[in-house]
Design brief:
Elements (H helix, E strand, L loop, with lengths): L1 H20 L3 H21 L20 H11 L4 H14 L3 H14 L4 H14 L6 H13 L5 H13 L2 H14 L5 H20 L5
């Protein structure tokens, strides 16, 4: 009954506002019609006895580590035509809209078809969209990036990251070793990738079953 009481109070409050503001009588009929329609809709579909529950987002948001963005900026640059699509892709991923993130990168590739940066990001987005699996489409995108920039560390690094999320540690290890080998010495990103590879090596060694 509390819902119907609240509805009655809303109606009385609206009537009081009309009187206090001394609005023209012609507006009273419009206000009354609006309240009547609202009440009819509530009586038809309202569920005053239902327990309250907090609203839930339609999608699960994806957290993007600022350190990962900083590493990517050092690897592929920030102020380029390709990078503008990466920023838009990040925004879509933060809202949990993986499909839109894929579409953004595909739009970029229509304008810059030979961008290894966008092909690499497409592989990453497709893997996320497909439930953290390196699907055939994601694998094809990474392979295209590797062919376009065989001497750049970004494609093997991000392909390795995608395989890491799937649990294929051996493949991630091989790709990250390649990324380290392709990185120029004494660069910040080489040290960071090498540090991640070292942690992965240690984890694989610690979880490897003992030899019999």
């Amino acid at each position: 009954m509390s819902g119907f009481v609240a509805l009655a109070l809303v109606g009385l409050s609206a009537f009081g506002v009309l009187v206090l503001l001394r609005l023209p009588r012609i507006l009273w009929s419009f206000a009354g019609a609006a309240l009547f329609l609202g009440a009819a809709g509530y009586l038809w579909q309202g569920r005053p006895g239902a327990t309250a529950s907090p609203a839930r987002p339609a999608r699960d948001v994806i957290a993007i580590d600022p350190a990962a963005i900083a590493l990517r900026d050092r690897l592929v640059g920030r102020f380029t035509a390709d990078a503008s699509y990466l920023v838009a892709s990040d925004a879509m991923l933060r809202t949990g809209n993986e499909r839109a993130a894929v579409q953004v990168v595909l739009g970029g590739l229509r304008r810059i078809p030979n961008s290894f940066i966008l092909w690499t990001q497409l592989g990453t987005n497709l893997a996320i969209h497909d439930g953290d699996k390196v699907s055939p489409a994601a694998k094809l995108a990474f392979e295209r990036a590797l062919r376009l920039a065989p001497q750049h560390p970004a494609p093997p690094y991000y392909a390795g990251m995608a395989y890491l999320r799937t649990g294929d540690l051996a493949m991630a290890q091989r790709l990250w070793r390649r990324a380290v080998a392709l990185s120029p010495p004494n660069t910040d990103y080489r040290r960071q990738i090498a540090g991640q590879l070292d942690l992965l090596d240690r984890f694989i060694a610690a979880t490897r079953p003992p030899a019999r």
